[in-house]
UniProtKB/TrEMBL annotation:
GO biological process: neurogenesis
GO cellular component labels: cytosol
High-level lineage: Eukaryota, Metazoa, Ecdysozoa, Arthropoda, Hexapoda
Protein's name according to its UniProt entry: BTB/POZ domain-containing protein 6-B isoform X3
Organism name: Cephus cinctus (Wheat stem sawfly)
Listed Basic and acidic residues bias regions: 17-33
Listed Pfam families: BACK, BTB
Ranges in a coiled coil: none
Region (Disordered): 1-34, 366-393
InterPro entries membership: BACK, BTB/POZ_dom, SKP1/BTB/POZ_sf
Length: 418
């Protein structure tokens, strides 16, 4: 080839600068990095095919995001306590659009970095079936509860993730399946969402609706009605409710709120004392203490122990229950035995702790079984028949003998305690 031809060939090619070579290398790297990714559509200006620069091309709005099926947009959620978990492969974008909580967790500054396979996020604070109902709700799928336990756990999840509609679905199912056997399971921790018992209004009481967009207020309104229904069942059948094991799992405040209620329809105050003693023993074990009488007494405030109406017990019920437990002091036991046996000469100290013990029956309590043994005084009525007179005289003598035995018992106990 002649020298002239070489010069002409070189003149037809434009020399490449170092900047252009570096740009081409960057494009090659970008192509290798995203060769398996869905390629976005490009907007190419018309009549500008010449001198076309890829860096000046914009993506169509909404298509710059990665596809939902891409592994970098996925996350693995491990839900439940260790050893009993369910795992979910979730799209970050889809879940973040329905929940601000998940948006902060999956797309916020502290979110896990995208990896392939997807990263695992552990959620040990939520029950697995409750989380399954939460996902169904967020994906607009029907939610069908099968048990009170799952519905109660779903209510906790709805409160934490601020889903008022899911909370209302849970409350509706719980109200329909609420009875004496399930009320404590529903009642436990419900006051954290609806407030304490003093702020809960009876069913049917008009209240101001929450402000629009107030998710916490809407959930509190739904839970307030459920809490009122729980209290109504506990008041109507406390003998069944207080004997359940679930009572031992309540908080100290919940136990105090129930024990101090005047509307409990208790036929025997010993039922309440036995429940308080069981709860105190469980609390000692939770703290790693021996369930001694001293530790059980210290596990609950004094007003809770004094909320039991001891003077409404009969002598046998008191001696075999509160007195035998050792929770009450010797002075308290001696004083209460005297009150129960009718020794009215013993006065209640005005400024002492015993002044807080009430002998007024609770509202709705059947008084016939409580006052019958105190008010019946055989021998004062006229005897019309000799047979009846003899029977009543025998009964009167038996009661006098019991009274003498009670007096001796009081003296013996006083000497022992002293």
């Amino acid at each position: 080839m002649s020298q002239l031809q070489k010069m002409q060939g070189d003149s037809l090619q434009c020399p490449r600068t170092e900047l252009e070579r570096a740009r081409d290398k960057d494009k090659i790297r970008e192509g290798l990095r995203y060769r398996n990714h869905p390629r976005p559509r490009l907007i190419i200006p018309k009549n500008h095919c010449k001198d076309f620069d890829m860096s000046q091309v914009a993506l169509i709005p909404g298509e710059e995001k990665m596809s939902g099926s891409h592994p970098f947009d996925m996350v693995m959620l491990e839900v439940g306590i260790p050893g009993d978990t369910w795992r979910y492969r979730i799209e970050r974008q889809r879940l973040a659009q329905r929940s601000e909580w998940f948006r902060a967790m999956l797309l916020g500054p502290l979110s896990p970095a995208p990896t392939d396979p997807p990263p695992t996020v552990k959620l040990q604070h939520i029950e697995k079936r409750a989380f399954d109902h939460l996902l169904r709700y967020l994906h607009d799928e029907p939610v069908n509860f099968q048990s009170v336990t799952t519905a109660r756990a779903t209510l906790d999840a709805a409160h934490q993730y601020l889903c008022p509609e899911l909370a209302r679905l849970s409350v509706k199912f719980l109200e329909a399946n609420l009875d004496s056997s399930t009320v404590l399971e529903v009642y436990q921790g419900l006051g954290l969402y609806a407030g304490n018992l003093e702020t809960v209004k009876p069913p049917g009481t008009p209240t101001a609706p929450p402000a629009p967009g107030d998710d916490v207020g809407e959930i509190a309104e739904a839970c307030s009605g459920l809490l009122s229904a729980c209290i109504s069942i506990i008041d109507s059948d406390p003998a069944t409710v207080l004997c359940q094991e679930c009572f031992e799992d309540l908080s100290s405040k919940e136990v105090a709120d129930l024990a101090c209620r005047d509307s409990l329809r208790l036929a025997h105050e010993g039922t309440l004392f036995a429940a308080l003693e069981r709860w105190a023993a469980s609390e000692c074990r939770r703290r790693g203490l021996d369930p001694t009488a001293f530790n059980k007494r210290a596990s609950l405030p004094e007003e809770v122990w004094y909320s039991v109406r001891y003077p409404l017990m009969n002598d046998r019920e008191f001696i075999e229950g509160p007195m035998a437990s050792g929770i009450l002091t010797s002075e308290e036991s001696a004083f209460l035995v005297g009150r129960i046996l009718g020794h009215t000469e013993e006065k209640i100290p005005v400024n002492g702790p015993l002044s807080r013990i009430s002998s007024v029956p609770r509202a709705g309590t059947n008084l016939s079984g409580i006052t019958k043994w105190k008010t019946s005084k055989p021998g004062k009525k006229e005897r019309e028949e000799n047979k009846r007179n003899r029977r009543k005289e025998c009964a009167s003598q038996g009661q006098k003998a019991c009274a003498r035995i009670g007096d001796c018992l009081v003296r013996v106990l006083a000497c022992v305690f002293d």
